[in-house]
Specification:
Length: about 375
């Protein structure tokens, strides 16, 4: 269906000039009438409080009302919420104290509103940087898991910087994970976050080679399959994900964390498919929901195909700065009144990156209110001397 041009905005290009860009009508996406054939979780961002007196580089000041409203938005599109993950700037501006309050508030809001599925990140990020014994790392995981379970939450077992820095062999990973998984009340999702998202996690599972590391992870999964709902891998390599997916123990899901190739991984092949736990679902929820409701039909690719270039742009290297693009889109679409982030990370991407993101979001039909998006983009350009 042809999309009509609505208005024109001047956007900067690589030469340093401003160029006219014609913004089109947004696409119309239908909300789901029944559960998806795939489990779909959006790793949700937090909305900063721009009027807080806390120092933005030191403290996480959160607008709780706007943050919870965004979770209701995701639930309304049939998405589950993966809470207090790296998309929420976990360990990159959001500390454990604020993470726990975020988890508690989201679990309570879900119970109050009947929103949808919630699983929350448990890690060891309350430990100061340094090296620790296996027992100390295990105890740190236990503390966070217990707090989430006390709040009534489900657990996503996040990768540990402390374990990456301290483990002397792959066996140390097995010792920690075996101990934690033996205690959890409900099956967990394990998250293997690659070094492209967090350089401190290079060599996770005891090897820099991903295939060697994969074998260690698979051994942990096989030993503890009854306590594992699934594994989310964020390596941005579809071949590695498919290879691991085909080796998973029976009953253990693969949750794609590949924000470059998610459309084809979710669709799957004749040997299986991936469910989804994705940061990009935070900002493409309407298109993703519409696609998942039409899995196996042409509408699936029609909705998702234009979002792949957008996602690859948002998650381009340095990948760890992708959160800036996620929050930028939430601001453009009116889900928050400002483009301010925890830790001041709105400055992590340059204005040409954000201008191209604007174009790609429009191409995907995801600028829900084009006049509002254009007005906000013009304000940002003026701040950058581009007016």
């Amino acid at each position: 269906m042809k999309r009509d041009t609505l208005l024109t905005i001047k956007l900067p290009i690589a030469s340093g000039r401003l160029e006219d860009y014609a913004v089109r009508e947004p696409k119309q996406f239908n909300k789901p009438s029944k559960p998806f054939a795939r489990k779909a979780l959006a790793a949700a961002h937090v909305v900063a409080d721009p009027l807080s007196t806390q120092e933005p580089w030191l403290d996480a000041a959160i607008d709780w009302d706007a943050t919870l409203a965004y979770r209701r938005h995701l639930w309304s599109w049939g998405m589950g919420v993966a809470e207090a993950m790296d998309t929420a700037q976990r360990g990159m501006g959001l500390d454990w104290k604020n993470s726990l309050e975020l988890i508690q508030r989201t679990v309570n809001e879900n119970e109050r509103s009947g929103g949808g599925f919630v699983a929350s990140g448990a890690g060891t990020d309350h430990l100061a940087p340094g090296k620790y014994t296996v027992e100390q790392i295990t105890a740190a995981y236990e503390e966070q898991c217990a707090a989430i379970e006390k709040a009534g939450g489900r657990i996503i077992l996040m990768a540990s910087r402390a374990l990456a820095a301290s483990a002397k062999s792959p066996d140390d990973y097995g010792r920690v994970y075996d101990r934690i998984l033996s205690q959890v009340k409900q099956p967990v999702i394990i998250h293997w976050l690659g070094e492209m998202f967090d350089p401190a996690l290079e060599g996770y599972w005891g090897a820099k080679d991903h295939y060697t590391a994969m074998d260690t992870c698979l051994a942990v999964l096989a030993k503890n399959a009854a306590k594992v709902d699934g594994i989310k891998i964020s390596l941005l390599d579809k071949d590695k994900e498919v290879r691991m997916r085909r080796k998973l123990p029976k009953g253990v899901r693969m949750y794609t964390g590949d924000d470059f190739n998610f459309a084809e991984l979710i669709e799957g092949d004749d040997q299986g498919y991936s469910d989804a736990l994705l940061g990009i679902f935070d900002c493409i929820a309407p298109a993703a929901s519409h696609a998942l409701s039409n899995l196996g039909k042409p509408e699936y690719h029609e909705a998702l195909a234009p979002t792949v270039p957008l996602s690859r742009h948002i998650f381009r290297a340095p990948t760890r700065f992708y959160k800036t693009g996620v929050v930028f889109m939430a601001w453009l679409n009116g889900h928050q009144e400002h483009f301010v982030m925890v830790g001041g990370q709105q400055s992590a991407r340059h204005i040409l990156h954000l201008a191209e993101l604007f174009r790609l979001a429009d191409a995907a039909g995801l600028l829900a209110d084009p006049p509002l998006a254009c007005a906000r983009m013009k304000h940002l350009l003026a701040v950058h001397g581009c007016a």
